[in-house]
Design the sequence.
């Protein structure tokens, strides 16, 4: 092909001219695009420094298009112009919303920019790893790292933001930092001159600013040269790195350090780009993280209500934060037309579900200007009527607000309201039309609102849905279970059949295998192109939800165990290649769970009979017999008997020889 083209070029002048033009175009960009690098700032109009243009979106107009530079980001930098990144964080809106709710609840608005950076409640919460919903600190492995680190200062929080990234974690720096802080490993410095620079981070170089100071201290770099070294390592420019190696080593020699020391220190600096972080960035993010942690520790109801409002369109996130409310014993009340606001709100120590988070309602269907205090008080009677505004959402079938708990405060059963709501709406609409047309009825109440003795309210039958139907409607319309959950009371028993929660799967890599448990929802059976039966469903626990795919081979062996609302355990492989991770089922089981726990085990012990060795042996015996029964220890003394309930880590199975081992340890009459 090349030889034929060469012959054509030599024989045909037109072909030669086309090829010559093509050579001039070869390697050039064929189109332009927008790189969201930064906002360019200059003292004078930008047209004084570089060309600009409007870049319309596909199908858009030039008038509405953003203004962009015609030079790419490196060319803009070479001109000496300032580029600034402005990041939009949802968490800033969450903070403001939480402050609004605190002010509504207490009459006092905290100054979030002046919170104490040594707040005991905040650090106690972080040390426990109770940071679900805290900016940058809510992932499972991050919470484990916090428990290992036990942060005590704001600098620790900023370091967490810098360390919890692939580079530092691959170098094991996050664990080294935690171990050195808590004395599990010694703090070492490669040279005493580095102590002042690296002491705040326990001898580890984790910030770009530390790299620059090390270059200044050891090799006599100027600030500009140190910044060039930072850029060279950060952007992996090999030619610049090689030039800086000789500069650094020679500078160390001029400052009295051996050449071998300079070479060894630069060997540490060269891979620094893999795990370095800008300290100013880390401190900024760390401060927002600390502010959210402070609000959660000191104003948990208001902060979680603000969080729930921010994720009301994401049912998975909503489920996570609702479970956090359960873990913190914060009641969450279902939507109510007489008590709810448009967004989640705090009422009498509880969080009230926002009406705009209900399916088919949305922002525009409920007036923000109508707070619950201004609405008509509920009047439970055997009949009801509707007047004034008709709710905006769909009002038909099980997906209507009548079948949910939104009207429970009126005192009528939900199924009864569903049976007659069309009559109520029709009468209300007819009355409104008459009123708008100026038609007055003989039985109108008039402006005085007096009692005419005439009652046209609809009789509501005394019918209601069973619990399963009520929860199903709640799940359908709110995206998650709010008032109750099918796993409530069974989560501890289920945990003994699994090795991870669904929330923990998000932190795993593609292809890893785990066994998880939860409730089957959205079950769909389908056939492949080959005619084989398979299924998909959503597995939901108290923390999160995830799609599960059951392919034909697994379906043959375990398909009969799948049904809606069943509690199952799934051993599967994580498929994290797409945006939404899924679990590929390998095995499915239906565990037998004691939802309310087993019968309690009561131990009778004389005060003073439990020495340190017996306590250790008692704990060992209890852990060797895990089950569902709580353990109560009756400590008997001549004056009184004190009853202690052991925590849930010591739930036991009273069968399989537990009592025999306890009698050997504590005496024949130890079982109460």
Sequence:
């Amino acid at each position: 092909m090349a030889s034929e083209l060469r012959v054509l070029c030599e024989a045909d002048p037109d072909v030669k001219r086309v090829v010559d033009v093509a050579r001039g175009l070869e390697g050039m960009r064929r189109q332009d695009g927008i790189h969201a690098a930064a906002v360019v700032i200059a003292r004078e109009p930008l047209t004084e420094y570089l060309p600009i243009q409007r870049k319309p979106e596909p199908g858009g107009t030039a008038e509405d298009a953003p203004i962009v530079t015609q030079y790419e980001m490196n060319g803009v930098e070479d001109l000496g112009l300032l580029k600034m990144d402005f990041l939009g964080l949802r968490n800033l809106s969450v903070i403001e919303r939480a402050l609004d709710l605190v002010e509504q609840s207490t009459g006092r608005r905290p100054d979030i920019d002046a919170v104490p950076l040594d707040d005991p409640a905040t650090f106690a919460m972080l040390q426990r790893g109770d940071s679900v919903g805290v900016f940058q600190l809510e992932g499972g492995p991050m919470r484990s790292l916090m428990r290992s680190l036990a942060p005590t200062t704001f600098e620790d929080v900023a370091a967490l933001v810098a360390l919890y990234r692939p580079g530092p974690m691959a170098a094991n720096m996050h664990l080294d930092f935690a171990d050195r802080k808590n004395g599990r490993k010694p703090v070492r410095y490669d040279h005493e001159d580095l102590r002042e620079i690296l002491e705040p981070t326990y001898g580890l170089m984790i910030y770009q600013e530390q790299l620059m100071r090390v270059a200044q201290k050891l090799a006599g770099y100027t600030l500009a040269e140190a910044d060039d070294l930072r850029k060279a390592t950060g952007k992996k420019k090999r030619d610049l790195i090689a030039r800086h190696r000789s500069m650094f080593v020679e500078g160390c020699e001029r400052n009295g350090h051996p050449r071998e020391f300079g070479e060894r220190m630069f060997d540490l600096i060269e891979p620094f780009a893999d795990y370095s972080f800008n300290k100013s960035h880390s401190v900024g993010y760390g401060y927002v993280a600390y502010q959210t942690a402070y609000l959660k520790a000191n104003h948990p109801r208001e902060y979680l209500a603000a969080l729930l409002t921010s994720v009301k369109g994401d049912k998975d996130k909503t489920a996570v934060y609702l479970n956090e409310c359960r873990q913190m014993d914060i009641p969450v009340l279902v939507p109510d037309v007489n008590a709810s606001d448009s967004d989640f709100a705090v009422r009498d120590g509880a969080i009230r579900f926002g009406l705009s988070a209900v399916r088919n309602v949305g922002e525009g269907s409920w007036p923000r200007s109508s707070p619950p205090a201004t609405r008509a008080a509920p009047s439970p009677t055997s009949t009801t009527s509707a007047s004034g505004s008709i709710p905006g959402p769909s009002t038909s079938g099980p997906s209507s607000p009548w079948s949910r708990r939104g009207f429970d405060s009126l005192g009528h059963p939900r199924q009864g309201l569903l049976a007659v709501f069309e009559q109520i709406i029709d009468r209300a609409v007819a009355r409104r039309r008459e009123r708008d047309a100026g038609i007055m009825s003989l039985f109108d109440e008039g402006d005085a609102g007096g009692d005419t003795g005439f009652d046209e309210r609809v009789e509501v039958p005394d019918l209601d849905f069973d619990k399963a139907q009520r929860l199903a409607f709640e799940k359908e319309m709110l995206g998650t279970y709010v008032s109750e959950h099918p796993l409530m009371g069974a989560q501890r028993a289920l945990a003994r059949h699994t090795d991870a929660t669904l929330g923990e799967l998000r932190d795993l890599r593609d292809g890893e295998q785990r066994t998880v448990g939860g409730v089957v929802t959205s079950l769909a059976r389908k056939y492949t192109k080959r005619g084989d039966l398979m299924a998909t469903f959503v597995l939901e626990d108290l923390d999160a939800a995830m799609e599960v795919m059951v392919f034909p081979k697994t379906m043959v062996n375990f398909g009969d165990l799948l049904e809606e609302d069943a509690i199952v355990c799934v051993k599967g492989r994580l498929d994290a290649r797409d945006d939404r991770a899924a679990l590929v089922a390998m095995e499915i089981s239906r565990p037998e769970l004691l939802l309310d726990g087993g019968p309690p085990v009561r131990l009778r012990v004389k005060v003073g009979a439990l020495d340190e060795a017996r306590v250790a042996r008692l704990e060992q015996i209890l852990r060797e017999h895990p089950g569902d029964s709580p353990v109560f220890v009756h400590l008997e003394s001549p004056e009184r008997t004190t009853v202690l309930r052991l925590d849930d880590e010591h739930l036991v199975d009273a069968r399989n020889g537990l009592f025999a081992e306890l009698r050997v340890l504590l005496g024949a009459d130890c079982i109460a």
User: Anything to note?
Assistant: Confidence is low (pLDDT under 50) at residues 373-405, 446-454.
